[in-house]
Amino acid sequence: MGALEESLQERFGLPSFRPWQREAIEMLLEDGGRRVLVVAPTGGGKSLCYQFPATVLGGTTVVISPLIALMDDQVRSLAERGISATYLASTLDPDERRRREQRLFDGELNLVYVAPERLRSRWLVERLAELRPPLVAIDEAHCISQWGHDFRPDYLRLGEVVAALEPPRVLACTATATPAVREEIVARLGLAEDAMAVVLRGFARPNLTLAVEEVDGLSARRRLALARVKQALGAPRAPRGGAIVYAGTRRNTEKVAVDFEEAGYRSGAYHAGLDPAVREDVGARFASGELDVVVATNAFGMGIDRPDIRIVVHVQTPGSIEQYYQEVGRAGRDGQPAAGVLLSGMSDFGLRKRLIEMGRPDGEHSESVEAWKARQWGLFLDLMRYVEAGSCRHDFILRYFGDEREVLGGCGHCDVCGSLEAEGERKVSEEDALVVRKALAGVARLRGRAGLKALAASLHGSDTQRVRELGLTQLSTHGILSAHSEAWIMVLLRRLMTAGLVDVTGSDFPVPFLTQAGIAVMKGDAPVRVLLPRTGAGQKRAGQRRAGGGSRGPRPIPVDDPDFDGALYEKLKEARLEAAKERGVPAYVVCHDRTLREMAAQKPRTREQLAEVHGMGPARIESYGDRLLRVLVSHP
Ligand code: ADP
Ligand code: ZN
């Protein structure tokens, strides 16, 4: 056991660091000091990253946190461990505050938590500077971002405060930060980006099975949502745990809630338009297990910590990847298998456009309304790229947050990995590029005359009354994509939208038009960087699939593979169990049964061969590769 672990045991009663905690702490403790940003989910254990160094460094560490209840709680538990700490907030009565300040200035405290509004006092900042704190930690650092969902004007001052305190070490912590917000944190705290280490870990949720289903029309969405919840919870008579169903509008939550009630589930609707007492009642009854299903807008969720939520269904596509991952992440907090199902279809584009048009940036944002709208649309398109993703959904999200280290490399816990080939980027052939340009030409000829459905019908060459009424049969692009079905063309049009080549108006009947980028691609001034949708079974086109061998397509589970070695499989399972125990993670985090079964058939002997096994990504090979190889190589 290392020296750090020993003091961890002694001071905090914990057996070991989480790997990323150790990494962050070691960096902070480096000679000369460091600046570190830790991004890890709520409950991941970020506070240890400043509490522990505080005890090692001695002196008085300053922690800035906006959550008074949390400060109070932390101060108490530190006190129980014999670590002297207190907090300063405007809620304290003046006598108590002076008493605490006196202890602080006498140098009796190892940690002092300060609420950001207290730092308006220059006097306090100067006194803190005199203490020469070895470390300043900023919790909930995303509150500094005017783009974040939790902006606090008092946080804007923290750059100045850090400059005044001149600490050798700065730690910023947050649970939510997209790359843009991370950059803003670093900039506003006045920390040069190149001097800053970012530790971003713990976002992987391997017990969550992610899936996207394409469906359109509210009634079809409602039926599918009910079916998925039934699968996850079982019959309404004895449901296994709870479900959250998110809808895009208040009216829809009420409609969908009726479906669940009629099906026999104990359910309720939840949205900001309801009486607060009603809302509170629904929230409390769901938390206590009296309700099985809540159908809600995104107003629902803050403070929901029911552990046995088995499924989160989005009847309509939400506004961003961040929002989606936060909402779907409410499933399976108990670590047991849970599912996230996102229903997505054409009408989501129009709905989101309308919601954005009606919305306004809140708080003291500096950007213009137009800039805000453009950014919201961009965030939504990012999510639609997730919907369209041709590779692992978990990895897509982890990469989006920049969490490369936890990328699972074929997780076995999403619909893409489960059923499709994990496909890298295919080069767009001339033939495919032409299809894209034809579709774009179709959009251009339309000149605002019709919606996407009619356009798809026309490109396919359908001669329906509707298409004729709209005058689309007259277009030179009518029937230009007759080799493809209307449904396929719809998927293509959607990809053109997520690729930013086509946009739709925000009116009640959204009409597509070409963007500047779309015009450039159509004219051949810019290359085509859009993958054509998969052609449905039975109509695969020659040359579309990658040539044999190297493809990492789904192979059959090799239990009945003649090469499968049962004894080796058992040994591998033992090794996995050991690794899981050591790291304190469930076995499936190390790797899945399916991966081990394949391994017991393929019998890889090198790291390269190991990478060929389904589910063995670089992160897993890094963490467990050697251990598994030892078993594989020593097996006769
Ligand atoms: P965060 O600030 O990231 O939301 P906390 O710091 O409040 O999370 O920690 C959440 C919980 O995890 C706490 O109960 C804490 O005791 C526990 N915890 C933190 N680090 C470890 C560890 N290395 N081993 C075991 N438990 C830990
Ligand atoms: Zn996957």
Tell me about this structure.
With 636 residues, the chain is α/β, with parallel strands linked by helices. It is 44% helix and 11% strand. The chain contains 26 helices and 15 strands. The strands form three sheets. A seven-stranded parallel beta sheet has the order 3-4-2-5-6-1-7, with helices on both faces. β3 (85-88), α5 and β4 (111-114) form a beta-alpha-beta unit. The two termini are 34 Å apart. Mean pLDDT is 85; it is low at 420-427 and 537-560. The chain binds adenosine-5'-diphosphate and zinc ion. Adenosine-5'-diphosphate binds at residues 14, 17-18, 21, 40, 42-48. Adenosine-5'-diphosphate (ADP) binds at residues 14, 17-18, 21, 40, 42-48.
Could you write a compact summary of the structure shown?
With 636 residues, the chain is α/β, with parallel strands linked by helices.
Which features would summarize this protein structure in a list?
six-stranded parallel sheet, binds zinc ion, binds adenosine-5'-diphosphate, 11% strand, 636 residues, seven-stranded parallel sheet, alpha/beta, 15 strands
Please render the helix and strand layout as text.
Elements: H1 3-12, H2 19-29, E1 35-39, H3 48-57, E2 61-64, H4 68-80, E3 85-88, H5 94-105, E4 111-114, H6 122-130, E5 135-138, H7 158-165, E6 169-174, H8 179-188, E7 196-200, E8 208-214, H9 218-233, E9 242-246, H10 250-262, E10 267-270, H11 276-287, E11 293-296, E12 309-314, H12 321-328, E13 338-344, H13 347-358, H14 369-387, H15 393-400, H16 415-419, H17 430-446, H18 452-460, H19 465-469, H20 486-498, E14 502-504, E15 512-514, H21 516-523, H22 566-583, H23 587-590, H24 593-602, H25 607-611, H26 618-634
Parallel strand pairs: 1-6, 1-7, 2-4, 2-5, 3-4, 5-6, 8-13, 9-11, 9-12, 10-11, 12-13
Antiparallel strand pairs: 14-15
Helix pairs in contact: 2-3, 13-14, 17-21, 18-20, 22-24, 22-26
Adenosine-5'-diphosphate is lined by residues 14, 17-18, 21, 40, 42-48.
